[in-house]
Each structure stands twice: as C-alpha cells, then as structure tokens.
Design a protein that fits this description.
The protein has about 220 residues and is α+β, with helices and mostly antiparallel strands. It has five helices and six strands, in the order H-H-E-H-H-E-E-E-E-E-H. Helices cover about 30% and strands about 25% of the residues. The N terminus is likely disordered.
Length: about 220
C-alpha cells in the first residue's frame, strides 16, 4: 500500500514537472521573453507563462472572438464539458454577437458564476486594459483575489492575414509557501485549459475566413 502511494505521488510530481516545463507551450523564446502590455501591473519577482498559436486569420477576426470571452457571454472556448462537469455553466459560442463586442476598463470577465457552491461569491477578472485588435489585459489583485496577477491576450500580426495569438499569465511570487504550492499545483490545469482556449479561438477565426483568401489555409 505504501509503495503504491509513493509511486502514485512520484508520478504526480513528474507530471507536474513535465507540464511546468511546457509553461511556454507553443511560444518562441522571443515571445516568452518579450515584455507585453499588462506585465507592468505585476512587479518582480513573478511567475510567468506564455502560450501561443498561429492563426490563419486577420487580427480583427481573431479579436471578435477574443473580446466575447467569459461565463454568461461567449464562453471560454475551452473544454466546456469539463467546466460544466463541475457546474460552471459555461457554453462556448460559435457565433459573433454584437452585444459581446464591447469591453471597457473596469468591466468584469466572469469565470465562476455567483452562487457556485465552493466559491459562492464567484470569481471574475476585471478588465485593466483594452487595445482593440491587439491586447486584452485582465487583472486579479488582493484583497478581492488571493493572487496579484494578470491574464493577458495579445494578437500579433505575422504576415498577410496571419497572426500569432498569445496568452500570458503573470503572477507575483508570494512569500507564503502555501500560496506558492497552490500556484504550482494549479498551473497544469491553467496551461491545458488555456491552450485549448487558444485553439478554440483559432478554429473559430479560421472557419470564418473566406475560402480562397490568403489566410484560407
């Protein structure tokens, strides 16, 4: 029994380390090292990840999907079945809705609805910066949130009707051991869900690009 527990624990640690090594999944070394809008909200020392994907669509098309994100809005474009398995009531749309196309600084992007059992107050990020077609910076900070961090998204042109879509998570390194452990344990979930989100946006944006266009693939 003890041997089984030790093997299981060891496998878990290896799994965490493997995914931690993928914290810049899809990003080039230059993208991972680049200073991006929103980084300045979180001072050093900080934990940082950068995920990226190439999207064969123009920036304005990608932005129309990105700006709709959120529970009760366009969804998270990730694993809806998994999020709904734990009761988050998230439904990723396959259409552009005009009422979801406008975000301003101070608006809220909900990821956990109010009334959710383990987190009755819900959980949301507030919009800290909006550069239409280029960058969306979401913020969490004490005392409302346990972490001081940003979750930012960046649309970077990479040729004729082609872009790189980046997602960066940057969190101030806590002096509290428990908070650092919680952050490391939660990191693999964030990496996997965010990677799926980027690909969800990619698939939707590319699907709407007219057939025969330079970005049509």
């Amino acid at each position: 029994m003890l041997r089984t527990l030790l093997v299981t624990a060891g496998a878990g640690v290896i799994g965490l380390q493997t995914l931690h090594a993928r914290r810049n999944w899809g990003a080039t070394a230059a993208e991972a090292a680049a200073a991006l809008p929103g980084d300045d909200f979180v001072p050093e020392p900080a934990e940082q990840t950068t995920l990226a994907v190439t999207v064969d669509a123009p920036a304005e098309e990608i932005w129309t999907w990105l700006v709709q994100m959120g529970q009760g809005r366009g969804g998270m474009y990730s694993y809806d079945w998994l999020e709904n398995l734990i009761g988050l009531d998230i439904h990723s749309t396959d259409e552009i809705r005009e009422e979801w196309q406008h975000l301003s600084v101070g608006d809220r992007i909900v990821v956990v609805p109010q009334g959710y059992g383990p987190i009755p107050a819900g959980y949301s990020f507030f919009v800290a910066r909006v550069d239409p077609g280029r960058a969306l910076v979401l913020r969490q900070a004490p005392p409302e949130h346990p972490w001081n961090g940003v979750w930012s998204f960046h649309v970077v042109p990479a040729g004729d009707r082609r872009c790189r879509l980046l997602a960066r998570s940057r969190t101030e390194r806590s002096p509290r051991t428990g908070m650092r452990i919680a952050g490391r344990v939660g990191e693999p979930i964030t990496l996997v869900m965010t990677r799926k989100m980027l690909h969800g946006i990619k698939q939707r944006a590319e699907r709407r690009v007219p057939v025969g266009s330079p970005a049509g693939g």
